[in-house]
Design brief:
48% helix; 6 helices; 120 residues; five-stranded parallel beta sheet; binds magnesium ion; alpha/beta; Rossmann fold
């Protein structure tokens, strides 16, 4: 499956990439929401892993913008954030996120979310 890993931390992008690539997936990285939207323009992805705290366009702003782009709106989103409070989870899920994980995360938890959403 093709993943878009969106996070302003290059270290976090690497950790997510390694976990997904280890499970046989392809991963493209984006630095923030605007970068993600640009990368979603020409390419189709099966799943988006999304940070919340980012410059330019944060995760919540990305989820909002995504709703108005039909091709992007149907791609499942896994939110991965240090802000793992219930209020943030509720907000992200209300904006259309499909799964929510706190950082630091266990690789197994990310892969379990992927399996639940994509069946692989
Ligand atoms: Mg961040």
């Amino acid at each position: 499956m093709k993943f878009l890993a969106v996070d302003d931390s290059s270290t976090m992008r690497k950790i997510v990439s390694l976990a997904l690539k280890g499970a046989g997936h392809e991963v493209t990285e984006a630095e923030h929401g605007k970068d993600a939207l640009a990368k979603l323009e020409g390419t189709s992805f099966d799943c988006i892993v999304l940070d919340i705290n980012m410059p330019e366009m944060n995760g919540l702003e990305f989820l909002t913008a995504r709703k108005f782009k039909p091709a992007v709106a149907k791609i499942p989103v896994i939110v991965l954030t240090t802000q793992d409070e219930t209020s943030m989870r509720d907000q992200a899920m209300e904006l259309g996120a499909n799964a929510f994980l706190g950082k630091p995360f266990q690789k197994e938890d990310l892969l379990a979310s992927v399996k639940k959403l994509l069946g692989v």
